[in-house]
Fold this sequence. Notes:
Elements: H1 2-26, H2 32-50, H3 70-73, H4 76-93, H5 96-100, H6 104-132, E1 142-145, H7 161-172, E2 180-183, H8 194-197, H9 201-204, E3 212-224, E4 227-238, E5 244-248
Parallel strand pairs: 1-2, 2-3
Antiparallel strand pairs: 3-4, 4-5
Amino acid sequence: MIPLTIVLIPSFLAIFYGLVSYFFSLFKPKNNLSSIFLFSLIFGVLEFIRGSIFTGFPWNLIAFSFSNQLEILSITSVIGTYGFNLLCICFYSSPAIIFLQDKKIDVGIFIFFLFLFSFFYSFGYFYEKKFHKIPKEDYEYKLRVIGSNIQLDRFYSNIDSISVIKDLIKISKPDPQEKIIFLWPEGILPDISQDELIDYNWIFKDSFNENHLLIIGTNSEIERNGSKDFYNSVELFSFLFLLKMIDNC
């Protein structure tokens, strides 16, 4: 898999950045201002395509540069991630107007984007204040996230699945008197699918009870037209009915 991950995937993703330059060269904007907006539009559209094509590669969007400025990121609740990404491209491209300006209005565009992101920050700041004023609700359940120390070679050595489940139960330390939601790592159970996990309820019944819920990522399968399609699924199990599946997605 090394050639695929180190060479082929980066080479494929690089095509999108090359297409930005190629498509931009096909147009011949008449002034610097239209060049900035056209470049940003092409870049933003190709970023959207990159994030959607072949199930999506939404890695390292320009908008991610604001990942530590939560106040500014709050605007994504209004304009969405890709809308904000387009504005970020315009914002980072706008300083070029200062060096390439033809008219004073060109500099005004740069100042406009400065004020726009200041507005985003103000919106996020007051949004955060409003969020913290929302009355808090106390929930009875605790959330316990399990980070196991189970070796990966278990998945390649035909290790008994029952021993893995017992190890996870031991790490989880379920208290029969506490209401706890357990979150187990995705794909931690080797060779056990969504439907098959229910058959292992006899292992859980001595440690889990109606006070406990389990969230886990497993494989599920759907049969269509004589063939089986496999999916990653997130399931919520209740031990009130001995590991009965409540929901999955």
